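Thread title: Can someone regenerate the structure for this chain?

I was given the following input by a collaborator and told the matching structure tokens would be attached. They weren't. Posting the sequence so someone can regenerate them.
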Amino acid sequence: MLFRSVSQSRYHSNCSMGAISLTMPYDASILSYTGYSNALGVINDSNLTINAANGNIYISWFGYPAVTASGNLLNLNFNILGAGNASIAVNSSASEIANGMGVAYNGTSYTGGAVTATGPVAGPVTGNTQVYVGGVTRLTSVLTGAVSQQWQLSVDGGTSWSNVTNGTHYSGATTNQLTISSIAVGFDDYRYRILVTGSGGCQSISSSVALNVLIPNVGITSASACSGDTVQVSVSITDAPNLGAISMALNYDASAVEFVGFNNVNSAIASNVIVNAPAPGGVLFLSWYNLIPASINGQLVNFRFRLLSSAGSALNWDQSIVELADIEGNVVGALTYTNGSVSSLPIPSFVGNGIYGNNTVGAGSSVQLFALVSGSPSLQWQVNNGNGQWTNLANDATYSGVTSNQLSISSATSSMNGFSYRVVASLAGGCSANSNSLSLSVLSSHWLL
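Best answer:
Regenerated them for you:
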């Protein structure tokens, strides 16, 4: 109920009064204490305190010299929260009246009162308050004892209210269900409540609810890799409750990256999701729908790409195709987008062929091979002994400097004739690259005479 009910506290005595202490329980589900008024002049001073807590009102006063009082002591004011009978009693075991010496009077009697609240009741406002631009929502309140009802709107956080009228955005303004359509971005934090009028003019106002107008983000992360490697990027949708359909299209450079699959599908869409990249590639499609709404606020799916060249590729959403719809089929009217990319990690750079040295020697001669590479990558020399396999070299009696830019072979043997050598350069946090190979020719001693 809207306004006041007043319970008067009265005191009848011809004796002097030096102190008052009263504890008065009341039904806080029906009454809300708002203050007092019309306090008797002899007690209406700084020594009078009145507080309400936990369904009790506490009144205390003391004065010197003692005063004589009779009649209306003060009025207690309440807001009425709902219909019903609310008693306002006096807890005699926690109350007393004392004389000027502070001695409590024996035999003090206390008489309680009651407030009978009749009229309409407006139940809590229910309905979906998380909405999209262009969407529809319905707010409902269960009403009791209503003769008429009127939805109200506040655009300033509940400070002021105006009546809702039927029109472009509203229908049902004078029923117990308000339909809000074609929701705009500016409706965010609009508050709604319903005012109910019963017989006799009594009124009740429901609690209010605020709209939260969501603008989902469709995003994809970026990743880096070395040519030939496969990377994983994460697709997400944020702030998207009650979805019924998703349609996505992602553009990429098919000459630089190749779509190779997807994983980690959000369980809310796993049953009906379709992902495909039709030949010749360059566009990746995802679609999903269901009659059971899905609420997405984060990870949707992971896409996997193989890097084909060091150029990499941008991953850009095709905003003309991307579309989200709520469970009623209403297209979400505003989205934001976060694009991504697949890029190449740094690659070591060799100078010329990468290695050089005297690769034609006689048996028993030493050999020096040198690596020419930009920057300061880590190096590893490898050998191919003719079986088609490259093997990392280790420092031993034959080889030294296997992780430096100079490989030394202490004594070439005829069995090493035709061995090929190369160096692998690797960057920390980057990629590896192989130099060109250099074949060793070991000549028999009579060729050298």
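The two ends are 120 Å apart (CA to CA).
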